[in-house]
Amino acid sequence: MTARRVAAWLAGLWAGWLWALALTAAPAAFAVATPEVAGRMAGRMFAQEAYAAILVSVVLFMLLRRQARAAAAAGTGSVFSADMVLVLGALFCTVAGYFALQPMMAAARAGQGSVSFAALHGASMALYGLKALQVAALAWRLAAR
To answer: Is 49 in contact with 26 (CB distance < 8 Å)?
Structure first.
C-alpha cells in the first residue's frame, strides 16, 4: 500500500469519526441521559478525539510532507502542499478548540472568568465544525488521486 493510499484511508477514517461523533454520538448521549451525565459523556468522547487528532495529524503531516518533497524533487510541485495546510488547520482547530477553550469552559461552568459558557461552547463548536470540514476536504482531495 502506498503512502498516498494510507494518507487517504487515514483522512477518511478521521473524517468519519468527526462526523459520527458530532452528528450521532453526542446527540444520542443528550437524548438518553441527564444533561450533566450527557455532558460528561460528550466531554469524554471529544477528549478522546482531541488526543487522537494530534496523533493522526502528525502521521498525516509526515506522509504528506514526504509526498510534497517527492513532488518538489520531480519538479511537479512544492515542498508545502494544500493538503498539508488542511492538516495543519485541523491540528490548530484541535489545539485551540479542545486544549485552549475546554479549560475556559470548565472555569465558566464554575462561575469564573469573564466569558460565558455559552459563548465558549459556541466557539468550540465552530472550531470543531471547521476541523470536520477541513478533514473531509482532505479526505476528498486524497481519495481523488
So the answer is: no
